[in-house]
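Researcher: We're teaching a course module on how sequence relates to structure. For the next exercise, students receive a sequence and then see the predicted structure as tokens, so they can try to spot secondary structure elements on their own. Here is the exercise chain.
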Amino acid sequence: MTDTNKRNAALALLLLVPAPSIGVYTAVYGAPGAFFAKAFFMACKVWLLVLPLVWYLLVDKQKLTLPRPSGKGMGMAVATGSAIFLAIGAGYFLFGHWIDPKLVSEKAIEVGLSTPMLYLLGAAYWCTINSLLEEYVWRWFVFTRCEALMPKWPAVIASGVFFTLHHVIALTVYFDWRITVLASLGVFIGGATWSWIYLTYRNIYAAYVSHVFADVVIFWIGYRLIFGG
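Model: And here is the predicted structure for the students to work with:
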């Protein structure tokens, strides 16, 4: 790995990693509800998706090709996904009394998830499309930049930390410090696990399948909190 490649990798991380945290903070704390805050949040989301593609084409000078679906690592994806699913579910039943359902419901209404149908449509998007986009950003792009700068296991840890940062800010909106700490630890473990899967199998779809298990149980818990049942 040349010094130029390492500098490019560091610059890519510097340009991308802070963006979602800045966007989330502006939306929920800087000017909540303001048009500017919403527009800035969306701009950060677009930046998060566009920068890796532009970087790959113009800086890495690679040709654009979509990764072909592969079965590599799918057994591990299902195994890790199932373990994460059960761990999140167990955490909810053990520590769910720390959560204020009224606050969660109020915040869900603020973002437009005011009916079961709207919630389920949102959940379908986050569990299918958004989780794949997160794998594209955080495993395919961020992890590989970390890998260019450090040994493999530190790269797994670093990418897990970077993935967790903006989630911490979002979690403080819905939960007290106890759930925020527990959930942030869970996000880190998930992010590091999916980076490890990508490191081991070089198959973004395996990381994606494992990720979907986590999102499904999270939205199931959210439904219980907001609508009961």
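Model: If you want an answer key for the exercise: The chain has one domain: 3-227. The mean pLDDT is 94.
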